[in-house]
Amino acid sequence: MQLSRVDLNLFTVFDAIYREGGITAASKRLHLSQPAVSHALARLRELMNDPLFERHGNEMVPTPLARTIAMTIGKSLSDLEQMMHRAGRFDPASSERVFTIAVREAQESTFLPRLLERVAREAPNIDVAAVRIERRDLEDDLQSGEIDFAIDVGLSLSPDVRREHIGSSPIVVLARADHPHVTGALDLETYVAQEHVLVTGRRRGRGYEDLALAKLGITRRIRLRCQQYAAAAEIVARTDLLATVPARYAELANRDLDNQALPFPADIAPLDTYLYWHARAEDDPAISWMKSLLLDALRSSASSGP
Q1: N or C end: fewer C-beta atoms under 10 angstroms in the chain?
Q2: 296: Cβ–Cβ under 8 A, 6 or more apart, which residues?
Q3: pLDDT digits (tens, 9 = 90+) for 24-76
Q4: What is the DSSP letter of 184?
Q5: Mean pLDDT of the residues in the chain
Q6: 119/190 same-domain check
Q7: Is residue 92 part of a domain?
């Protein structure tokens, strides 16, 4: 098969279907009609002599061959896109680029207002998408260009993923103002005797603070798992539950409440936060520009009040 005889747009369609899981979503991503995407897939199936995707319910499930070639196609398309970005001159004032940032929901309010204030002023046609962190796919998504940046705690990733420290936040415990067992101070015995709210995006598993407790041979009763610090603070204000959170988020979540914020009653390191990006994008002037804005917004929000 000679590459010169192959329509490379077919691989763009393949990549979109693989990432989106269906023809309808792929057509929206590519701004093409559904018949056009279906026709391109039919041509590619004939070219590869494989169905590539098989319908299961509402999803298009990739075949073994499709899974094998997906990473190569995605990386090749990403490399081409990066090459085009580097070859062209980046002008924030006229660019229409979309930057995708993976971040926990609870972190959005700490930096997005400052970031968008700068973006609106300097780059009126640039869009920003804040999406959910998927740690198991984080490195692949950064490499492929599915996301441009990620904001998260310290993670074990390959040297190809670059990171810069944003800041550290001590861990505090929220308790309602008139809590019957917590009155201005909190010791470990009292802490462990209470029921707790765990703020996490994961379906199972313990929190950062549970690692510190485990070193002491201690476990606690987690009564509720939720995803938002604001929700946790509201629940604390209405119940006897305690919530253990980074001080920065406690400050934001507790703005309109009267909860106590007390030091964590055991030795625990502050929670570090990092900005992540992939080495393949370091020569992209657009990535450099957005990284500068992101770091300014993140560090400003970390060092000032809400």
Answers
A1: N
A2: 114, 118
A3: 888 888 888 888 888 888 988 988 888 998 888 777 888 989 888 888 887 77
A4: S
A5: 87
A6: no
A7: no
Taking residue 150's Cβ as centre, other Cβ atoms within 10 Å add up to 27
- Domain residue limits at 60: 3-87
HSE, CB side, 13 Å, CA atoms: give it for residue 298: 24
* In the block, residue with structure tokens 């995803």: 227
For the whole model, what pTM was predicted?
0.67
CA–CA separation, 150 and 98 (whole Å): 15
Give 227's strand partners: none
201 belongs to a structural domain: yes
Which structure tokens are listed for 186? 């909190």
The full DSSP string for 157-195 is: --TTEEEEEEEEE-EEEEE-TT-SS-SS---HHHHHHSE
Helices (H), the chain: 9-20, 23-30, 34-48, 64-87, 108-122, 138-144, 188-193, 208-214, 229-238, 247-253, 285-303
Specify burial of residue 135 (Cβ count, 10 A radius: 0-12, 13-18, 19+): middle
CB-CB contact of 236 with 144 (8 Å) = no
Residue 259 DSSP one-character state: -
My answer on whether 159 and 196 are in the same domain is no
Distance CA(146)–CA(168), nearest Å, equals 28
Tell me how far apart the alpha carbons of residues 252 and 170 are, in angstroms, rounded to a whole number.
14
263 shares its domain with 277: no
- Look at the chain and report how many structural domains it folds into: 3
Q: Are 227 and 234 in contact (CB under 8 A)?
A: no
Is residue 93 a part of any domain in this protein? no
Rounded CA separation 220/4 (Å) = 63
